[in-house]
TrEMBL record:
Taxon lineage: Bacteria, Bacillati, Actinomycetota, Actinomycetes, Pseudonocardiales
Pfam family, one: FAD_binding_3
Domain FAD-binding: 5-337
Recorded GO MF terms: FAD binding; oxidoreductase activity, acting on paired donors, with incorporation or reduction of molecular oxygen, NAD(P)H as one donor, and incorporation of one atom of oxygen
Keywords: FAD, Flavoprotein, Monooxygenase, Oxidoreductase
Name of the featured protein: p-hydroxybenzoate 3-monooxygenase
Gene3D superfamilies in the cross-refs: D-Amino Acid Oxidase, subunit A, domain 2, FAD/NAD(P)-binding domain
Amino acid sequence: MADRATVLIVGAGPAGLVLGNLLRANGIDTLILERGSRERVQTRARAGFLGANSARVLTEHGLAAGMLRSGQSHDTCAFRDAEGEFELNYGELGRGEVHTVYPQQHLVTDLIAEYLHRGGRIRFDVTVTEIDAATATVRHNGGESRGRFVVGCDGSNGVSRRALPADLATRHARDHGIAWLAVLTEAPQSMTAVTYALHDNGFAGHMARSPQVTRYYLQVCADDDPAAWPDERIWSELAIRMRVDRFGPLREGPVTERRMVRLRSDVVDPMQHGRLFLAGDAASLISPSAAKGANLAIMQAEVLARALTDAVTREDEAALRAYSRTCLPRIWRAQEFSHWMITLLHGPAAAEPDAGFQRVLRRARLSSLRDSRSHQDFFAENYVGI
Ligand SMILES: Cc1cc2nc3c(=O)[nH]c(=O)nc-3n(C[C@H](O)[C@H](O)[C@H](O)COP(=O)(O)OP(=O)(O)OC[C@H]3O[C@@H](n4cnc5c(N)ncnc54)[C@H](O)[C@@H]3O)c2cc1C
C-alpha cells in the first residue's frame, strides 16, 4: 500500500520544513520523506545568518520562538587587507536591515518540533530513489508514496532535479574553481563583526554562530584533505591571514568540525514540471560567500506554500504556474551578489597571465566599497536582502 498525502515533500532541511509548517497551518495534509535520521538532521551545522526576509517569514508564521529567544542581531561586517581594515555598519545603510545569527541546526530542530505539533507527518531514514513528475509518485526504500503534488527540497545532489526532463529544464552552472575549508570552533568570536580577510595566501573569514561557537573559513587548494589541517595549522594560518600582528589575537579553542566546501553555483530553470516543484538548494545552489542559501530556501518555501494553498483550497493553480517566474529573478539577484562577493574575496591564481591586473582591480573594488556611500547602500541592500 502506498502512503498518500496531498503534498509530498522530499527532504527535511529549511526549505522542506518551512514549507511543511506553512501548509499545515493552512490545514493541508503533508508527508515529509527524509533520508537522514532525526538526530542527524538536527545536528548538521551549516548556515547561521538569517536575513530580514527570513526573520519576517519565521515570525509571521509562528516559527520564530527559538530564533527570538537565542538568536543574536548582527549588523556589521569588516574587510581587512594589506592596507588596513574598515567596517560597514550595514544596519545603518541600504534599507537598514540586519541579520539574525541563529544556527541552522537549531532552526531545523525548532521546525521539526512545530511541524509535528501542527499534525504534520514525517518519515526519517527514507531515501527517495525516483520521482514521477506526471503522477506525483515517489519511490523510496520503504516502498511508494503518492500525492497530488510533490516538492523536491532534497538539496543540490538529490533526486528531484533528475526528475525534470533534460530537454525542458536548463541547469545554468558555474564551478568557481575555489575551495574553502569550513571550520567550526568551540571558541567565542574574536571580533564583534563578520570579518573578511583578503590575503596573498588566500581568503579567510570569521563569522559568529553562538556565544560559544565561531565559524571560520580558509581558502585552500581544491584537492586539499581536511585531515591535513590539524588545529595548530588552522589557527596559525588564520593568524597570518587575519593579520593578528596588526589587529589583535584570535580567541582560540578546539576545532570541532572541518569540511571542504567547493564554491559552486547553479540555477535550474524552470523549477517545476507537471506535479513536481523544486525549492531550496534543489532549485538553486549558491556558494556560501554571501550566506544566501538558507535564506533563498525560506523565500521559495513561502512563495510555494501560498501557491499550493490556492491550488488545494480554491482549485486555483495560477500562482503555481507562475512559481518559477516569481522566484527566479530573486534567485538570480542573489547569485549575482554572491558572484560579486567571490570576485572581491579571492585573488587570482598566481599563474593567471593577468594576475597583476586582477589584483589591482580587486583593490579598486574594495576601496570603492570603503569610500562610496552609494556603493555601501547597494552592498547593504543586497547583503541582507533577498
Ligand atoms: C558551510 C556552509 C555554511 C553556510 N552558511 C550559510 C549562511 O550563513 N546563510 C545561508 O543562508 N546559507 C548558508 N549555507 C547554505 C545553506 O546551508 C543551504 O542553502 C540550506 O541548507 C539549503 O536548505 P535546503 O532545505 O534546500 O537543503 P538541505 O538543508 O540540504 O536539506 C536537504 C535535505 O534533503 C535530504 N535528502 C537528500 N536527498 C534525499 C533523498 N534522496 N531522499 C530523502 N531525503 C533526501 C537531506 O538529507 C537533507 O536533510 C551554508 C552552507 C554551508 C555548506
